[in-house]
Amino acid sequence: MRHELANLMARGELRDPALEAANLTVTRVCVSPDLRRATVFVARLGRSDVDLLLPALNRGAVHLRGAIARALKLRLAPEIVFAADATLDQAAGIEALLRTPQVARDLAPPHDDEND
After folding, report:
1. Are 51 and 7 in contact (CB under 8 A)?
2. N or C: which end of the chain has fewer CB within 10 A?
């Protein structure tokens, strides 16, 4: 489902003006245990303003649901809800934290004073 959604979005299936220049990545899809709802997590590489695009994505979710049902030959496609994926932002924050002098000092190999 993730691959098909990414393909549909890359082909411009959502013709919303707010999404015209948006370069979105579908990072993961979580389907509920009863298969009635799919939460699609999206991110914009290098940008953190994906929250502004969620209303436009959710407006086009009905169209994508039908396209997914046809592409995957599903009798019932799950309701699609879009959500922002903050994983990339969190990873960048952790990486920046690891590069701070205080943390770098703690991560450095121990200095052997006996050989000096």
Report:
1. no
2. C
Q: How far apart are CA 39 and CA 47, in angstroms?
A: 21
Q: What is the pLDDT of residues 56-111, one digit of tens each?
A: 899 989 999 999 999 999 888 999 999 998 887 777 788 888 888 887 777 777 76
CATH number for the domain that contains residue 27? 3.30.300.20
C-beta atoms surrounding 60 within 10 Å: 20
Its domain, for residue 77, covers 2-108
Rounded to two decimals, what is the model's pTM?
Answer: 0.75
Tell me how many domains the chain contains.
Answer: 1
Q: Is residue 21 part of a domain?
A: yes
**What token pair was written down for 54?**
């969620």
